[in-house]
Amino acid sequence: MEELLKLASSYGFPMVVAIYLLVRIEPLIRSLTRSVDTLTMMIALQSGIKVKDYDDLRTVVKEKAKD
Q1: What's the confidence (pLDDT) of residue 13?
Q2: Where are the transmembrane segments (predicted)?
Q3: Is residue 16 within 8 Å of residue 3, measured between CB atoms?
Q4: Helices (H), 1-67
C-alpha cells in the first residue's frame, strides 16, 4: 500500500489508476480475444471455409497489424 502512495505522489493519481486498471483488465481482454478468434473459426467452418485458408488469412492479418 505504501508503494502505491509513493507512485501516486511521483506520477499523479490519474496515471496510477490508469496503470492499475490496465493491469487488472489485461487478462479479460486476452480472454475476449480468444473467444472472438474461436467464434470466427466456428463461423468460418460453418460457412465452408477450409481451416488452411482460415489460418493463411489469419497469418496475413497478424502481419499487417504489426506494420
Answers
A1: 79
A2: 6-23
A3: no
A4: 2-11, 13-46, 51-66
